[in-house]
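Lecture notes, unit on protein representations.

Consider one protein chain, 446 amino acids long.
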Amino acid sequence: MSVAVESERLPAGVRSERRQAALASLLGALLLAALLEIAIDAASGHSPLIPRSPDTDGWLKGVGEHLGFRIFLIALLVSCGAYAGLLALAARAGAVAISKRFAIWLIGLIHLILFVGPVLLSTDVFSYIAYARMGVVHGINPYTHGPLSIVGDPIFHDVGSDWVRTATAYGPIYTLLSYPLALLGVAGALWAMKLWASLASIATLILVWRCARIRGLEPMFALLAVALNPLYYIYGLGGAHNDLIMLAAMMFAVSLTLVARPGSRREGEAAAVIVAGALVKATLGVLLPFMIVSRRRLAPVVGTLVAIAAGALIGFIAFGIHGIDIVAALNRDAALVSTDSFANEIAHLFGKPGVFPVDHDLLKAGLVIVFVHLLWRTWRGYDWIAASGWTLLAISVTSTWLLAWYTLWPLPLAVISRDRRLLVATLAVQGLFVIHQLSPLLAPVQ
């Protein structure tokens, strides 16, 4: 009896399930193939998309060709298409089409490929290493000097040219955590940074699953919406960004609040975790007002104050006043303008050459209005997790220095929010970012 005849005798529901599972496998294979194309070609040598870095991926060299914009963007579009298809399957068929085992294997392979492959699309990880080596190897305060002060260090030539004069903008907790890695040498520190990013990503995904289950949402959809998001793994994980550590802290704090009894110690611990995450990257601090207003109890306030006092003391002892002057670092970064920012593109649409100082002020005012409105809604009972996600999305949209991984900040909150508009808006903003990258595809092939 032929396979086709046997298939026809199966119940319609079983045939549909098999087709959905086969489609999920195909989409997963496309996603992995696109990522492998990027990783293998990226390892073949320096290109405008791949930063110069220590030779940690020599075993991949010679397998592919130099990664150009056209191949990268085609692979990115394939990844986005596969992502959309897998999300649609997860929303419609759930575990019928995408089993837990399939999801774990797919996500694990993505993490493995990016761990053993080259650093993608950003030099930020080399700045992390440079700041650590400044403090440990050279005895220079990274909050008062830029990497230019260690021009003879082997990491210096891997730091992005835009940042060699810039002191670190990251929190003192992150800087102190990175210090021991400087003792591993440049290549060892890079492997350790990539391991940190992978572990932080896995922790974030586990916590997303847990929070979705606690809130009565579909955990498989939430997991895939984050883990298979091309901006998440290609830009965020591929660049070993410390934003992943911030996201892990964010989701840990959220998970604590979801299981905390009113007024319990866990509410204070959750607030302290947010402060600790903000001392990695200050953006996370915007969650605190929403948490405190939603809980309306003393525990989160006490946890916040204790954590701020402890963090400020540690930062001051280690780095002096500059180590805790977060406002100055934020103001410095807020003045930067990237070609991908919405503000810059809107300015061009109105015939302006770029973003002027008055535009910065208007954007800040708009962000304050959004923040106050969401805080008022939270006071009146709106979900503080959704309000925090909308605020993080507003920060990325109004920022004149927009990078791909900034659009990831609201994503883990969006997938566990009951306000599905937040997820739609987050994915729409990410879609616009991807579309903005596609201009090289329209240029004639040289």
